[in-house]
Amino acid sequence: MSEKARVIQEYVPGKQITLAHVIRNPRKELCEKIGIDHQGAVGILTITPGEGAIIAGDIASKSASVRVEFVDRFTGCLMISGDVSSVESSLRSIVSFFGSKLLFASTEVTFS
Asked: 10 Å Cβ neighbour count for 102?
């Protein structure tokens, strides 16, 4: 009888943005699945510590005409929607602020 390996994962918060992604012109089915009415673009960001998602949501809503669709201070997830250029601009503003002002490690804004 073979033994199963047991993996224990720990959440170790650091000061980092791990994902900043723009989904351009998502299909209607995807928007329905994630509960978004707007089909221009969807921006997704994950950040640790999770409370940073609140700050990121504030920056997003002040930097461009986007709608904050979801923010979770426990997981650090932020989801925004709007037209493609506004969503891209918001994510770039967030990444820039966290990198320059709060000295977070970051990632590039990516697209699909």
From this structure: 10
Q: Output the pLDDT for position 10.
A: 59
Helix, strand or coil, per DSSP, at residue 109: coil
Q: Which residues of the chain have pLDDT under 70?
A: 1-2, 8-13
The structure tokens listed for 72 are 């979770």
CB contact set of 110 (below 8 Å; sequence gap of 6+): 20, 21, 22
99 φ, ψ to 5°? -75, -45
Q: Do 104 and 98 meet the contact criterion of CB atoms below 8 Å apart?
A: yes
Q: What is the pLDDT of residue 11?
A: 58
Separation CA 25–CA 28 (nearest Å) = 9
